Amino acid sequence: MNPIVKNILAVIIGIIVGMIVNMALIMIGGALFPIPDGVDTMNAQDWELKQFIFPFLAHALGTLAGAIATVKMAASHQNILAIGIGIWFLAGGIAMVFMLPAPEWFIFVDLSLAYIPMGFIAGRLFAK
Question: Are 102 and 44 in contact (CB under 8 A)?
Answer without folding.
Answer: yes
